TrEMBL record:
This is enoyl-[acyl-carrier-protein] reductase (NADH). Belongs to the short-chain dehydrogenases/reductases (SDR) family. FabI subfamily. GO terms for molecular function: enoyl-[acyl-carrier-protein] reductase (NADH) activity. Keywords: Fatty acid biosynthesis, Fatty acid metabolism, Lipid biosynthesis, Lipid metabolism, Oxidoreductase. It comes from Capnocytophaga catalasegens.
Amino acid sequence: MYNLLKGKKGIIFGALDENSIAWKTAERVFEEGGKFVLTNAPIAMRMGKINELAQKTGAEIIPADATNIDDLQNLVTKAMEILGGKLDFVLHSIGMSVNVRKNIPYTESNYDFTLKGWDVSALSFHKVCQVLYKNDAMNPWGSIVALTYMAAQRTFPDYNDMADNKAYLESIARSFGYFFGKDKKVRVNTISQSPTPTTAGQGVKGFDGFISYAEKMSPLGNATAQECADYTVSLFSDLTRKVTMQNLFHDGGFSNVGVSQEVIEQFSK
Ligand SMILES: NC(=O)c1ccc[n+]([C@@H]2O[C@H](COP(=O)([O-])OP(=O)(O)OC[C@H]3O[C@@H](n4cnc5c(N)ncnc54)[C@H](O)[C@@H]3O)[C@@H](O)[C@H]2O)c1
């Protein structure tokens, strides 16, 4: 390992179990010398195994519903107390759509569910950024990263209203990135990750077909959660200090491929 995050402190949202992208990222950040507080929604604490991760990485856990400003305020205040100062990195690795969970087709969206999913998956990122900004909680050259998916740019029918949520999330990274850059010298980016077998990923209908298709379309193959953790570490490190307001594809090349030889062969008589 390279000690890329030695002396750096942060908050990691969204580690549910060992498949979670946030779980793998926490392990990699720990290996690179970073210190952090882990957080997740109170209900996820009961379902998941976050205690195991906390023990392994010497992290404290502070529960917070990322849609609740009081919870976020408490989290940021306590994280700075525990870690002994301002933060250098924050990972937002949160997503949930009630319409997807309940198998409601996009054309029949229940708008109460749409609003709930939007709040959790997209607006929560604005809330996290706003609480960090108002508390002046980030060190200069700090880095804030959220995870997204390419359905924000192109249609994947079963991704449902999460596509709209991701488009909104990516826009927040640009808009808040402007103010965070100007006022605090802090980076804000999204990583657009390949389909990945996690609890959230597998909630999408037809996920198995979808992940195999992406694998066949990507010249380098799908990016794994572990590889996403590596990429995130690079964005938290000092090696990427002028990268901000970007949506960064981490997908083995999928997003720039029209069709691959393997896919053509499937359709050739
Ligand atoms: N898995 C994929 O195929 C894939 C692809 C691209 C992007 N992503 C994105 O990666 C991120 C992480 O998802 P994952 O695939 O690791 O799945 P995951 O299910 O392991 O993680 C999702 C997390 O969101 C948390 N969460 C839900 N509601 C919350 C709330 N109100 N407050 C705080 N936390 C809450 C869950 O508890 C869970 O830990 C999500 O933004 C997801 O959309 C996933």
